[in-house]
Amino acid sequence: MTLRPGLLLAAGLSAVLAVAATAQPADHIKARHELMEQNGKDTKAGFAMVQGKTPFDAAAALAILTRMNGVANNFGKHFPKGTETGGGTEAAPAIWEKPAEFQAALAKFQKDTAAAVAAKPADAAALGQVLGTVAANCKSCHESFRVKKG
Ligand code: HEC
Predict the structure, then answer these.
(1) In the chain, domain spans
(2) What's the average model confidence in pLDDT over 18-35?
């Protein structure tokens, strides 16, 4: 009699833990990929305007920079413990081994994208300048925190 609630609780808890251990990491890894893929597309579209491959459009440029700032603000939420491997992740172990450095890289990306949005570039040259500063983050963070696979 007295055991029953405890057993029910244990069963319920292990079900919750099972869900947390399976579905959640995959969701985080998927979110990471989607955010960075968007980032890649926006960077490409931005530089296409800078290079005159597509016409400069101030509103579209601002939308690109705003999305990139959104990525910068949200990307760091998707690296809880338990998401180090699996799902084809390219996240490097350094993210969990040197969390302060990863946070610093995220903070710099947030700051540079926020400054780019605030600059509201009005022509291709101005966009090139802010995008250059923003794009330096891609390379430096990837060098330390991304392991490129196949
Ligand atoms: C603060 C660190 C950081 C910054 C800054 C950063 N990235 Fe990434 N990026 C990563 C990590 C970590 C991964 C691997 C994520 C994973 O596979 O779980 C990644 C993966 C990617 C991917 C592969 C996405 C996929 O489909 O798996 C692309 C594309 C990408 N980044 C583009 C960019 C571009 C472009 C920029 C700059 C505008 C940028 N990144 C800035 C950390 C960063």
Answers:
(1) 26-145
(2) 77
Yes or no: say if 126 and 56 are a contact pair by the CB < 8 Å rule: no
Tokens 């931005």 belong to residue: 46
108 within ligand 1 shell (Cβ under 6 A): no
What CATH code would you report for 26-145? 1.20.120.10
Is residue 43 in contact with ligand 1, taking CB distance under 6 Å? Answer: yes
Q: Which residue's alpha carbon is nearest to atom 35 within ligand 1? A: 40
**8 pLDDT tier (thresholds 50, 70, 90):** low
Residue 110 near ligand 1, beta carbon < 6 Å: no
Q: Whose CA is nearest to atom 25 of ligand 1?
A: 33
Task: Report which of 15, 50, 58, 75 is spatially closest to residue 129, judged by C-alpha positions.
Answer: 50
Of the pLDDT bands very low, low, confident and very high (cuts 50, 70, 90), residue 83 is very high
Overall size of the chain counted in residues? 150
